[in-house]
Amino acid sequence: MSKTLKIFIDGACRGNPGPAGIGVVILEGKKVLKEISKPIGEATNNIAEYSALIFSLIESIALKAEKIQICSDSELVCRQLGGKYKIKNSKLKFLYDEAIALFKCFKSVEIKHIPREENKQADRLATGSLKDIKSSLDDRPEVYLFGEESPSSKGYASR
Q1: How many degrees, rounded to 5, is the angle at CA 76 between CA 128 and CA 94?
Q2: Is the pTM of the predicted complex or chain greater than 0.85?
Q3: 33, 77, 101, 149: which one has the fewest Cβ atoms less than 10 Å from its Cβ?
Q4: Domains in the chain and their CATH numbers?
């Protein structure tokens, strides 16, 4: 019997572009195999959506899935993958091509557009990854200037 996974994906960003993250929920039947919440750096929302897709495909390969159903609330991603929308943005085209190449690792891939209400768990994970970005930025050390003209050259640091 072939291993079939149902995957919910979402991308989020604060600003567009802005700090971005992904959320992925991988199910086998009703059992949650994996939940992923990961910041991806500066990106647009559409890049975050595609990144969630690609990350989910790589995880599905590692889980030895043969058939997958991808559920996303991104109309753009679903319609581009379904051939209904053209891909005009070169960054999205690169991610699209990567996803299509990864699809070849499976016997069957289904892309399903779902309402946001049905994607709450992946949305929560994607949004949660943005909180990780904020806290990691807040923990950065303060910046000090060094050099001939800076106060540090006289023995004290300046902000």
Answers
A1: 85
A2: no
A3: 149
A4: 4-154 (3.30.420.10)
